Backbone:
């Protein structure tokens, strides 16, 4: 049962981390160039990679495998630019709904490139999941709100596709390796790319200098907490895949993350509005609830 506990723990970690990201984007950065926080993420990833190198060194692998695992981290780092862009106008629950498109992406890639068959049940799950973001978009009563929702949805969609491709790449390349090796090169590539993107962007550097002068404690607390919690969740999830049935561990983690994020969003918004930051209007809650249920059902159908 350890795989089940780890899957639920991963879902909880991802959910909490998404609220830290949302808080940092809206409150600390006030939706102005939140991607600049990647510099701190990069430092954390490289520090963790250094610790892993000495505590649990990676195994010897081919150079092309190293390059592809590093590329997996680079792609995820690049994808997070769109993730933060989407968070500028949307809340954590909406972002989590789009993440459920990742198994859909895996299904399509398997069908196109690996001649895998798609069952009627999976086909149904495909359309159920696709309907969830549309329900959220059309829950907006004003056209302007809908346009913002569509724009944020496109950013989250790009992030999801890139993150899914990154996950698929690391899974295929590292399927015969120990997990520590795959994780080491992934966070190394992500950390290096985070710092490179920061150094190449003058507006990001200027924004960080401003934030460090005005909101240093908030910035460090929110960003460090979110990054460390997210990494802990990712580690727990990967371990659950190894210890349990992969498909079952995946569906438990994905479905649980949706439900936990939805519940936390309401609770946190009631007791700490600046952190929860969910829109607690009745029609919005109902739309998100329906979308969450559809995603959970769709993800189950895909497995």
Residues:
């Amino acid at each position: 049962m350890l795989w089940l506990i780890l899957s639920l723990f991963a879902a909880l970690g991802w959910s909490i981390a998404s609220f830290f990201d949302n808080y940092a984007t809206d409150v600390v950065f006030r939706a102005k160039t939140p991607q600049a926080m990647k510099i701190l993420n990069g430092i954390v990833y490289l520090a963790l990679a250094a610790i892993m190198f000495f505590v649990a060194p990676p195994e010897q692998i081919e150079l092309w495998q190293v390059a592809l695992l590093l590329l997996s981290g680079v792609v995820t780092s690049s994808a997070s630019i769109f993730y933060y862009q989407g968070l500028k106008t949307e809340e954590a629950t909406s972002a989590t709904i789009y993440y459920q498109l990742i198994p859909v992406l895996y299904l399509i890639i398997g069908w196109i490139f690996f001649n895998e068959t798609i069952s009627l049940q999976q086909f149904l799950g495909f359309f159920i999941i696709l309907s969830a973001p549309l329900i959220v978009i059309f829950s907006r009563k004003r056209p302007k709100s809908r346009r913002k929702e569509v724009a944020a949805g496109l950013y989250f969609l790009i992030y999801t596709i890139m993150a899914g491709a990154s996950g698929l790449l690391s899974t295929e390349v590292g399927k015969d390796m120990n997990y520590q090796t795959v994780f080491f090169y992934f966070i190394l590539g992500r950390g290096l790319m985070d710092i490179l993107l920061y150094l190449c962007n003058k507006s990001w550097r200027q924004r960080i200098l401003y934030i460090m002068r005005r909101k240093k404690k908030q910035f460090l607390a929110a960003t460090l907490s979110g990054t460390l919690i997210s990494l802990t969740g990712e580690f727990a999830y990967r371990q659950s895949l190894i210890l349990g049935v992969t498909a079952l561990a995946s569906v438990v983690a994905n479905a649980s993350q949706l439900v936990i994020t939805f519940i936390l969003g309401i609770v946190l918004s009631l007791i700490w509005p600046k952190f929860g930051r969910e829109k607690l209007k009745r029609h919005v809650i109902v739309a998100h609830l329906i979308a969450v249920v559809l995603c959970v059902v769709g993800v189950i159908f895909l497995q």
